[in-house]
């Protein structure tokens, strides 16, 4: 469905043309003076030069040419030559009525459909999932959903870290503790046990212990490095152990990501890319891109116009070992071969920006990724505690994601129980649903590249720019809609039957004396009527901007803009709701139109939060 802005722009272009001016001046933006108008055009000022006329005169000509337009209720000239526009109420209502019957809610699939791989999550096996990985999961999941909603083919790849020193550290520590295991027996030729020789909790204890020891014990560290090398060389016992580590970790990771409502299409890992390295390196040598520098094999990626130093990509260290960069390049080789994507998007901590700059440049220079394939990096900032430092537990340790989620759910549970509108048996499930919105919205509503402060009190509040506030608005609408349906089916006053909404009391009073006899069925749709008040017009305008907001948020890789949109929509709705007696409206046609408007608002909010990666409960 065409964007409202496009309709407005088109009509204005007609005005310019009729008045004898070039249509190219008919650019329209949302008004920066909402008290005066809804949209504005500054083209008359720009046209001054070409026509040698005062901008006010040009603007007036255009306004005159648009008299009688059915798109605008007002076209006026202001200041030095601004054209101020108000949309005709009837045009807006017509637009919304079409939108309300469109299953896509006006968000049409893009014409230029692309295949996009999103590399997000990026946890490292054997290390507990901590808050550092939270942002990647939340932001990446949202972009995946938004991209799909717009019709792109999106493939989410977790890109597990399973090839680094952490693997060697675990093996070394395990050998210390259980030297009798067959994995360490050089002469063992039988099959290895199917059962892993550790549980996830043991694994999570082993890694930090090994990591700490390696920092103090030089010989131990050397052994871990050697073990990593042996694993990479394919030593049989280490490979079997490594497979156990992955299996145990992945089971645990899946459980945690499920709690976050995050899922991946591909569970590929760093190790999957290793087979591509030898050929890739050989080709880079043959093509003259890679050369030896102090024993290491490197590719220069600096450009003349660089303002800061971009060091060469190191492909192989002097001992022949590959690095993080090598793995990411080989992963691109693999992705091009297996998926031939139009774009690869990385959602990673912004401190890795230089790494990706090097990888992207090297991939382009050496022809791994052709020019027409987009490589994007969305670097996110740090999640800080209230002290402004990276988020930690109260004891100063690394916060596990599981603990964080449990804390939020607990806080949410308290608030919901205090609200006392939900029967206790629901409170637990509701707390999880609302808690997830608190966590995700708290993150997504910030521009990704910025650091933000994780504030559990603020995030779980039902008021302000929070997930629970958005859900509360949805639940409020659902409650009104279901009371309306009850009225229809009872054909009688249902004021006493309402429950569920925390503020049902305020609306219940307006039901008195309303015995609705209309025979509207549950799914018949009534057209949305021209706005009856300013608050309603504001709500309608915001609804009509949904497709534009969605597309822009995705193309700018900015879920925070979708958050800003639904926050404003929720505010607009709540203002309308407080100013309007909906269920006690006597005019049946008006009432039905408002019900359609409410239902559209609900659908838009629910569709948007689905794109953000959370959902609303029935009641809260
Ligand atoms: N495992 C990495 C880390 O924890 C993140 C991986 C990001 N993705 C990539 N293709 N390098 O820092």
Quickly describe the structure.
By secondary structure, this protein is of the alpha/beta class. It folds into four domains: 4-87, Arginyl tRNA synthetase N-terminal domain (Gyrase A, domain 2, 2-Layer Sandwich), CATH 3.30.1360.70; 116-160 and 268-383, Rossmann fold; 165-259, no CATH class; 406-612, Orthogonal Bundle (Isoleucyl-tRNA Synthetase, Domain 1), CATH 1.10.730.10. It has 22 helices and 13 strands.
Layout of SSEs?
Blueprint (H helix, E strand, L loop, with lengths): L3 H15 L10 E2 L8 E3 L1 H9 L3 H11 L6 E7 L3 E6 L1 H13 L13 E5 L14 H16 L3 E5 L7 H13 L22 H17 L1 H16 L2 H24 L10 H4 L3 H10 L3 E4 L2 E4 L13 E4 L7 H16 L3 E7 L3 H13 L8 E7 L2 E2 L16 H19 L4 H21 L7 E2 L2 H4 L7 H24 L13 H5 L25 H11 L1 H10 L3 H21 L8 H25 L8
Parallel strand pairs: 5-6, 5-10, 10-11, 12-13
Antiparallel strand pairs: 1-2, 2-4, 3-4, 7-8, 8-9
Helix pairs in contact: 1-3, 2-3, 4-19, 4-22, 6-7, 6-8, 7-8, 8-9, 12-13, 14-15, 17-21, 17-22, 19-21, 20-21, 21-22
Bound molecules: arginine (ARG).
Tags for this entry?
4-stranded parallel β-sheet; 620 residues; binds arginine; single chain; alpha/beta; Rossmann fold; 22 helices; Gyrase A, domain 2; globular; 4-stranded antiparallel β-sheet
């Amino acid at each position: 469905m065409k964007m409202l802005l496009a309709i407005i722009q088109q009509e204005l272009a007609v005005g310019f043309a009729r008045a004898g001016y070039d249509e190219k001046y008919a650019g329209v933006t949302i008004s920066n003076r909402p008290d005066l108008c809804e949209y504005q055009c500054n083209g008359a000022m720009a046209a001054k030069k070409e026509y040698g006329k005062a901008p006010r005169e040009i603007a007036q000509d255009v306004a005159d040419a648009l008299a009688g337009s059915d798109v605008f209720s007002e076209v006026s000239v202001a200041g030095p030559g601004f054209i101020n526009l108000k949309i005709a109420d009837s045009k807006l209502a017509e637009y919304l009525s079409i939108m309300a019957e469109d299953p896509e809610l006006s968000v049409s699939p893009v014409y230029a459909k692309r295949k996009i791989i999103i590399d997000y999550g990026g946890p490292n096996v054997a290390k507990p999932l901590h808050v550092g990985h939270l942002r990647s999961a939340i932001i990446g999941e949202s972009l995946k959903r938004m991209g799909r909603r717009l019709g792109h083919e999106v493939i989410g790849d977790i890109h597990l870290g399973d090839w680094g020193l952490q693997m060697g550290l675990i093996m070394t520590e395990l050998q210390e503790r259980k030297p009798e295991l067959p994995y360490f027996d050089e002469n063992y030729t039988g099959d290895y046990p199917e059962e892993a020789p550790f549980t996830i909790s043991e694994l999570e204890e082993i890694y930090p212990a090994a990591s700490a020891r390696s920092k103090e014990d030089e010989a131990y560290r050397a052994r871990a490095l050697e073990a990593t090398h042996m694993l990479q060389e394919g030593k049989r016992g280490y490979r079997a152990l490594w497979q156990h580590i992955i299996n145990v970790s992945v089971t645990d990771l899946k459980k945690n990501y499920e709690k976050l409502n995050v899922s991946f299409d591909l569970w590929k890992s760093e190790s999957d890319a290793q087979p591509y390295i030898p050929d890739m390196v050989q080709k880079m040598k043959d093509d003259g891109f890679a050369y030896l520098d102090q024993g290491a094999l490197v590719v220069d990626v600096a450009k003349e116009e660089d303002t800061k130093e971009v060091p060469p990509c190191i492909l192989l260290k002097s001992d022949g070992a590959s690095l993080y960069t090598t793995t990411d390049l080989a992963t691109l080789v693999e992705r091009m071969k297996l998926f031939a994507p139009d774009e690869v998007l990385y959602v990673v901590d912004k401190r890795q920006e230089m790494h990706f700059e090097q990888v992207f440049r090297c991939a382009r220079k050496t022809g791994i990724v052709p020019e027409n394939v987009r490589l994007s990096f969305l670097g996110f900032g740090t999640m800080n505690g209230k002290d402004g430092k990276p988020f930690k537990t109260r004891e100063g340790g690394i916060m596990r994601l599981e603990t964080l989620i449990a804390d939020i759910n607990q806080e949410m549970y308290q608030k919901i129980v205090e609200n006392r509108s939900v029967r206790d048996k629901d409170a637990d499930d509701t707390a999880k649903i609302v808690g997830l919105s608190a966590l995700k919205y708290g993150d997504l509503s910030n521009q990704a590249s910025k650091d933000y402060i994780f504030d559990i009190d603020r995030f779980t509040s039902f008021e302000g720019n929070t997930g629970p506030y958005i859900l509360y608005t949805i639940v409020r609408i659902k409650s009104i809609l279901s009371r309306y349906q009850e009225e229809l089916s009872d054909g009688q006053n249902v004021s006493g039957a309402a429950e569920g909404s925390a503020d049902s009391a305020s609306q219940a009073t307006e039901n008195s004396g309303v015995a609705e006899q209309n025979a509207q069925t549950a799914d018949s749709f009534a057209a949305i009527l021209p706005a009856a008040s300013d608050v309603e017009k504001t709500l309608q305008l915001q609804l009509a901007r949904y497709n534009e907001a969605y597309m822009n948020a995705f193309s700018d890789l900015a879920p925070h803009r979708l958050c800003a949109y639904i926050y404003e929509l929720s505010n607009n709705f709540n203002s309308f709701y407080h100013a309007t007696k909906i269920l006690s409206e006597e005019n049946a046609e008006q009432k039905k139109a408002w019900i359609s408007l409410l239902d559209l608002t609900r659908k838009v909010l629910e569709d948007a939060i689905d794109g953000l990666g959370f959902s609303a409960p029935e009641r809260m």
